[in-house]
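yo

u said u wanted the structure for the complex thing, so here. seqs first:
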Amino acid sequence: MTVLKTSMRNFLAHKGRMALSAIAVLLSVAFVCGTLVFTDTMSTTFDKLFAATASDVTISSKDSSNTGETTSNTGKPPVMPGSVLSEVRKVEGVEDAEGTVFSTSVTVIDAEKKNLSPTSGAPTIVGSWNRTDARTMEITEGSAPKGAGQVMVDADTADKHGLKLGDEIRWITAVGTHSAKISGITDFTITNPGAALFYTDVPTAQRTLVGESDVYTSVNLTAAPGVSDEQLKQNVLAAIGGDYKVLTAKETADENQKDVEGFMSVMKYALLGFAGVAFLVGIFLIINTFSMLVAQRTREIGLMRAIGSSRKQVNRSVLIEALLLGVIGSVLGVGAGVGLAIGLMKIMSQIGMDLSTRDLTIAWTTPVVGLVLGVLVTVLAAYLPARRAGKISPMAALRDAGTPADAKAGWIRGLIGLVLTGAGGFALYLTSEADKASEGSLWLGLGVVLTLIGLVLIGPLLAGGVVRVLGAILLRIFGPIGRMAERNALRNPRRTGATASALMIGLALVACLSVVGSSMVASATEELDKSVGTDFIVMQDTGQPIPPQAVERVKSVSSLERVTEYKVHEVALGTPDGERVTGKDISAADPTYATDLRVETVQGDLADAYRPDSMSVPEKFAEDHGIRLGSTVDVAFDDGRTGELTVRAITTSDTVIDGGAMYTSIDTLAKYVPADKMPLDLMVLASAKDGQQEAAYKDLKAALSDYPQLKVRDQTDYKEALQDQIGQLLNMIYGLLALAIIVAILGVVNTLALSVVERTREIGLMRAIGLSRRQLRRMIRMESVVIALFGALLGLGLGMGWGASAQQLLALEGLKVLDIPWPTIIGVFIGSAFVGLFAALVPAFRAGRMNVLNAIATE
Amino acid sequence: MTSAVTIPRHGGTGSRTAVAARARQVVKAYGSGETRVVALDHVDVDIARGQFTAIMGPSGSGKSTLMHCLAGLDTVTSGKIYLDDTEITGLKDKKLTQLRRDRIGFIFQAFNLLPTLNALENITLPMDIAGRKPDKAWLERVVETVGLAGRLKHRPTQLSGGQQQRVAVARALAARPEIIFGDEPTGNLDSRAGAEVLGFLRRSVDELGQTIVMVTHDPVAASYADRVLYLADGRIVDEMLQPTAEQVLDRMKDFDARGRTS
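structre next:
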């Protein structure tokens, strides 16, 4: 009881000192809970959407994907003949049947040729207005579309692009471009997370999306009263046989859910990973706080021991304080997590993914996970300081200063750290020597973990040397103030080490990723320079196929010397080793592709792969399946026949661009795949006539001006786009790592604030003998800067080591150029100095405000 | 008194008076109304230049408060304090800090030294802070006087209590302040070490012409001074010149007895 009481009193007496640790726990827990709430809410939103939009039973073509999303390489959705509709109307238990036509292989533009597709990755859907959709939507303006000249738009899209009744819009499909005026605007009664929807009547949809009449992509059935969905499905199957896909509402919803689940779980675990890093960093902060509290309370604890408290009681009293801290931080964190989730939803709606707070889902597990994690981590982190508190001898009560430092333990710790760092370094070396990716990534993982732990352990030892060097370079110009700052930073190397380690973790990740990212760009650029023999690349950034009319436009540009089409088709391969490899893609291109993209061959000439009934395979695939030059492979083309293709070239696997691709000619593809199943071009490569580069670039852009979804890029554009793409990804990751760095900054603030409290008397003395407030503040700022730079130095060094090893490993996958982004590295280093200045703001202010007399009088 | 011949040079104020510091009608009160406590009650005092002044009095008499006010560490409720010709009451913190740095030296009872700095660095700290170069010859003489020549590279934790206080004395002397304030500088020392430190203070007055004000409740310590001021209830109630330990002790007993009977 008394133990609890002392803990409570101590906790309350030092609540100011606990505040930053509590914030660290709060932030980490909030991130975890926020992630969970956010992903759960997304899940709920999609659940509701899919449940509400599915008809009782849906019939669709066998070729359509389970989710009913009708993308296909041919640019046209898979359809069923109109007869299906009239057949199922007669089936028992069908109250209502309605045929619909939908396609997602469309681009919709407004009169100014601006793309109306969502930027969030959500689909653009053009289809026929139907009774199933009408259940969850209401027409808020105008009327439903009638005839070829009318289209209805969903309200979110209309809002986003300022579309009004009567505005003209166009949609581009493999059939052609169709234009219509907006006749109505319709709004979801449930939350639509972001798809852009355009409705026409059935004949218009059939004609513009498929190019045929009397076909449907799906037939929606409503069950008669008393007939279950399952019963109806069975009836339908019995009537029309198994030639079509028949799904009940539940099955449709489940399939849809499964489709988005992958994306959501990736997002969830990525976010949780970053939360984990923040937790790791928070641990250092908590350890530091409790170590300092214990150190400051040494005499008090000595007294407790002297008057009869047992070791265990002292130990427990510290742990109970940690428990209180953990509970408070976690409870607040769970609350903040919900807030964070709502904030995230707001941000997502900015980029086009609308989520409503009406669907806010807080599973019972969310607060439990947050609380357990927060409390557990806090108590575990406080364990070491608590043990140290237990070891304080009763003699400490009589001693003037704190306990003498445990020098031996420091050496043992340093030695272990050194061994681990060495072992980690060796593992990283082995990573770069590894021949197989699997083996290398194992070494890399081991190396990263070992060097991290090792450096954390030798941090205090390194602090001595590094801080002295930093001091010599940076602080000497500040004279005695700088010298005192340096000495203060060195005073407790363990504390400085732990504070810097926290910063090190975040910055190491930043440095590592920046090295990998920049190596990626550099490697790809180098390879582009080496292998690309064409001037222009035309493609859609969404990866959707190019409408055939656009390809014709490209071909009509007179300043072009040659145009190469590039398609991809799914195949199953029967290899000489008797295996059957399914789900592979084969790249079918014009023979000029071999010049446009020079891929090195190990054997044979790549141009031969474009001869009739020929193909190429990459080296690795050839090795794995016993394929030699001249071997024949049974290639079963999806939706087509099986052909016996001869391998006439074996390409190197050592490439980033088109890595692992198998090539054949479009003519060969056309031989085995029926014309209506031929995939559209994914990419068109164009080369200008000699000396007409600039003209061709302009002509090409002009020719494709009606197709804003298509990007024309020359090599410079392409490299820039690549760089932007990787840059964006990196920025996103840096943004998420910012959380860990914020926690680390809190750690620096915390250490300084507690140091200032600890040194109250000293500060009083210095002020008494004439240190001005400004000098005092400068001294604390300098100390902070040195700690931050020390952390940055360790972190950046470690991160570059990791990054370089990762690059060596990825060199196996073609990432051959190591590029260290010095501007970023140096920027981060300099930024860390500012972080130090920033962290010192409040502690320095408070130190400056101290009353001199009180400070001197402090025990 | 040999002080007049060896007044240390000082790079600041021009003409110098025989009085190093003055307090005029100084009142220091805490709280207000019912709970108002008067620590200093209209105190007038002159601290003579080149003299060693001791301030004595029972606990709560206001002796420390008086010293803190004279040294510019504490503010007064009313009245004026001058250091030489400078009125320090009403000065802003920045000026006060400069004043303490350049013109005043301190010796506290304990915790006089920064643990991160060695003895020599501690001694030159006020000058370092001010960005001034210490006068080499003077520094050597001070170090010599306090007998620390062999221990300048030691950190405070490696020095005994007496040695630490001697470093503090050296620091106070090294910057050649106009006046040194000591707050029970020997309070934490045994009698031998205390005598040593007091001996140095005495010598610095006699040989270096230093002005020193020291708060103490130890009659033996007070006997090193030229003049003893007695404070009781915030007022100066008596004064003694060229005291001996016995005289001081007798006087203290006197006060004690009076205090008890009243």
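The mean pLDDT of chain A is 87. Chain A touches chain B at residues 401, 479-481, 483-484, 487-488, 490-491, 761-762, 765-773, 775, 852-853, 856 (CB under 8 Å).
cya
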